[in-house]
């Protein structure tokens, strides 16, 4: 039962990744693209967690933690660039 | 029993993630689009991470705390990044489809008095005009 549920969930999360990638390509303004990147890394964390449960391996947590840290830092840096025109003053 | 609970958590998390990205794709306005990923997707990923924590705690010997760490980190950082994105959008003057609150004030006062809302609207450019020459004089 868990395997079929994980298959359905993988399909849903993959559709979410595709939709946020479409917004990343299409987004009319720069904050839209930054928001799409933010959603994309959060979706990739969900995808990694589902793969970790499916394969039964605990190796994916460190990758997910690194993606979360680096994604947050990237979002903050891009927003600071839009706000100030400079990241480190 | 545990398997049903895990399946419920995983399905809820995947559905919430899907709904958040659907909101990012389909809504009209940046300020509307900000709601989907920052609320629904964060809750969905948190539910998936808790399901993973329960699964690995039940399978292995000890309690696995990595996922709780990622969940805490995501729940702390999602509002911060949403706030910064909203600040950047306001800085860039992005178009919003929502009505301005000052317009409704003006319509209300225009029915009774007809002056207060227009005074608010007229005060802002004049004050900015008085500020601008001072700045140019000072250097």
Verbal overview:
The complex is a heterodimer of chains A (89) and B (139). With 89 residues, chain A is mainly alpha-helical. Chain A has one domain. Chain A has 3 helices and no strands. Chain A has helices spanning 2-26, 30-55, 60-84. Chain A starts with a helix and ends in a 5-residue tail after the last helix. The mean pLDDT of chain A is 90. With 139 residues, chain B is an all-alpha fold. Chain B folds into 2 domains: 2-97, Helix Hairpins; 99-139. Chain B is 82% helix and 0% strand. Chain B is built from 6 helices and no strands. Chain B has helices at residues 2-26, 30-33, 35-59, 66-91, 101-112, 116-137. In chain B, helix 1 packs antiparallel against helix 3, helix 3 packs antiparallel against helix 4 and helix 5 (101-112) crosses helix 6. The longest helix of chain B is centred in the middle third of the chain and has 26 residues, at 66-91. Chain B is elongated, with a radius of gyration of 24 Å. At the A-B interface, helix 1, helix 2 and helix 3 of A face helix 1, helix 3 and helix 4 of B.
**What is the 3D form of chain B?**
elongated
CATH class of the largest domain in chain B: Mainly Alpha
Q: Can you summarize the main beta sheet of chain A?
A: none
Total individual domains of chain A: 1
Average of the residue pLDDT scores of chain A? 90
Total strands of chain B: 0
Fraction of residues in helix of chain B? over 70%
Question: Any guess at the CATH architecture of the largest domain in chain B?
Answer: Orthogonal Bundle
Quantity of strands of chain A, as a count: 0
Q: SSE order of chain A, as H and E? A: HHH
- What portion of residues of chain A belong to β-strands? under 5%
Say what oligomer this is: heterodimer
Strand content of chain B: under 5%
Unreliable segments of 5+ consecutive residues of chain B = 114-139
Low-confidence stretches of chain A: none
Rg of Cα set of chain A: 16 Å
Terminal-residue CA separation of chain A: 54 Å
State the helicity of chain A in percent bands. over 70%
Distance between the termini of chain B: 74 Å
User: pLDDT average of chain B, as an integer?
Assistant: 78
User: Could you describe the largest sheet of chain B, including whether it forms a barrel?
Assistant: none
Keywords (chain A): Antiport, Cell membrane, Ion transport, Membrane, Transmembrane, Transmembrane helix, Transport
Family (chain A): Belongs to the CPA3 antiporters (TC 2.A.63) subunit F family.
Subcellular location (chain A): Cell membrane
InterPro entries (chain A): MrpF/PhaF-like
């Amino acid at each position: 039962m868990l395997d079929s549920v994980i298959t359905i969930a993988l399909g849903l999360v993959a559709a979410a990744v595709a939709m946020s990638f479409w917004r990343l390509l299409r987004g009319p303004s720069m904050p839209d693209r930054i928001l799409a990147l933010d959603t994309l890394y959060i979706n990739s964390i969900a995808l990694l967690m589902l793969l970790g449960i499916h394969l039964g391996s605990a190796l994916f947590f460190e990758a997910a933690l690194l993606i979360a840290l680096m994604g947050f830092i990237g979002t903050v840096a891009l927003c600071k660039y839009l706000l100030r025109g400079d990241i480190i003053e | 029993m545990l398997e049903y609970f895990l399946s419920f958590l995983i399905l809820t998390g995947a559905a919430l993630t899907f709904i958040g990205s659907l909101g990012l794709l389909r809504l009209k306005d940046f300020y509307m689009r900000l709601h989907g990923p920052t609320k629904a997707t964060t809750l969905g990923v948190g539910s998936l991470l808790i399901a993973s924590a329960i699964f690995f705690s039940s399978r292995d010997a000890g309690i696995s705390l990595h996922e709780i760490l990622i969940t805490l980190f995501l729940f702390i950082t999602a509002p911060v990044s949403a706030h910064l994105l909203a600040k950047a959008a306001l800085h860039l003057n992005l178009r919003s489809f929502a009505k301005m609150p000052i317009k409704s004030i003006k319509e209300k006062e225009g029915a009774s008095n007809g002056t207060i809302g227009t005074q608010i609207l007229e005060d802002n450019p004049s004050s900015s005009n008085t500020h601008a020459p001072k700045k140019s004089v000072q250097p």
